Amino acid sequence: MTEFEIANLAVRHAALTAVYVQAAVAGTVGLIQAGLITWGLLLMRRAGDQREKREDARHAESMEALRALIHGMETVIERTGKG
Predict the structure, then answer these.
(1) Three-state SS across 56-83?
(2) Residue 56's closest CA among 48, 45, 44?
(3) What residues contact residue 77 under an 8 Å CB cut-off, 6+ apart?
(4) How many whole angstroms separate alpha carbon 67 and alpha carbon 61?
(5) Angle at the Cα of 68 (from 53 to 61), degrees rounded to 5?
(6) How far apart are CA 71 and CA 65, in angstroms?
(7) Contact of 83 with 77, CB cutoff 8 Å
(8) Residue 33: how many CA atoms within 13 Å on its side-chain side?
(9) In the chain, what is the straight-line distance between the N-terminal and C-terminal CA atoms, in Å?
(10) What is the DSSP string of 2-38?
(11) 31-83, pLDDT tens digit by residue?
């Protein structure tokens, strides 16, 4: 092999190594992004579940107050004799 061929092979080898490094970096970045997206979705799901529990508790409290109000109104109607 001539010096030119050896130098040419060295340049090609360096270029191919750079391509492999770029592919490895891109794959690593992709895996990190997928992990972050998955983590974010899990956090959003947990927040949604917590919000739903709070809303259910508020709804139950409101319904209890409404039942008490209805019972009070029925009592007033019975006492005034208009029922």
Answers:
(1) HHHHHHHHHHHHHHHHHHHHHHHHHCCC
(2) 48
(3) 83
(4) 10
(5) 10
(6) 10
(7) yes
(8) 6
(9) 112
(10) -HHHHHHHHHHHHHHHHHHHHHHHHHHHHHHHHHHHH
(11) 999 999 999 999 999 999 999 999 999 999 999 999 999 999 999 988 888 65
Question: Could you identify the residue written with the tokens 């947990």?
Answer: 46
DSSP secondary structure code for residue 1 in this structure:
-
Residue 81, both tokens? 């004799």
Q: Global pTM? A: 0.61
Amino acid 14 reads A
Residue position matching structure tokens 């190594």: 17
What is the chain's alpha carbon radius of gyration, rounded to the nearest angstrom? Answer: 35
